[in-house]
Amino acid sequence: MMSSHPPIGGLLREWRQRRRMSQLDLACEADISTRHLSFLETGRAQPSREMVVRLAERLDVPLRDRNQLLVAAGYAPVYPERSLDDPALAAARKAVDLVLACHEPFPAVAIDRHWTLVAANAAIGPFLAGADAALLRPPINVLRLSLHPGGLAPRIENSREWRAHLLTRLRRQIEVSSDPALVTLLEELSRYPSPEGSRRPEPAREPDPVAIAVPLRLRTEGGILSFLSTTMVFGTPIDVTLSELAVESFFPADQATAEALRATARRRGQGPSAAESHPSQL
Questions:
Q1: pLDDT, tens digit (0-9, with 9 covering 90-100), for 199-220
Q2: Which of 72, 97, 119 is the C-terminal boundary of a domain?
Q3: CATH number of the domain where residue 26 is located
Q4: Orientation angle between helical segments 159-177 and 180-190, nearest 10 degrees
């Protein structure tokens, strides 16, 4: 029977070109000859299981795609893909919940490779206020919620700047993974109209030499809240699901935002942080 999987040689060449590496570059990284690499890419030689793993590591291929390379070469996948509810990932899920809780009273979310919301802490409320109910039905896509006219977009003070920032991040993710679902998501987001508040021309200005990151400036009932975001990933995952999980944490970019969020937390009776107030829940 003919295999329905693409040839391993073509996949290796595709990943090498995607990483903008020459055959010489990859051969040197993998400690093999360029002749042998050429034979692998053209199908004149069949790679061993260890060779597939070595080349995938040097090409920084995502774990999900490493499994596809192994299958294409005739080997069984080696990286498991478990649900976050699987007992084997209990410690990792507990770590994610701990990070989210300890970040309160500031917002934080956990997302998967398609920007689907996996978990969030109690401080995410200001981001969800006023969003269309349809956008808040699971599965919630964080990028769609952020840029959709019925989501956060009309309340983002610097909507053009933030939109460009998110779309750039998504394009870079597509360059790394070539995930067709992300390509479809990018096409959808790119079609969204500019929110009403951003239609007026913004004055051209030179980049602020003091600025350190693109902020998110969100209009709320309590005024404008300004955030800087950071992303946390697991450093040495060997599970596909875990390798694709990220925690996006939002820090106050100014003192007024910090004070407003702390005041909101006090009104909820949350205290300094969920981790300090409710350690038994972690």
A1: 444 444 444 544 568 999 999 9
A2: 72
A3: 1.10.260.40
A4: 160
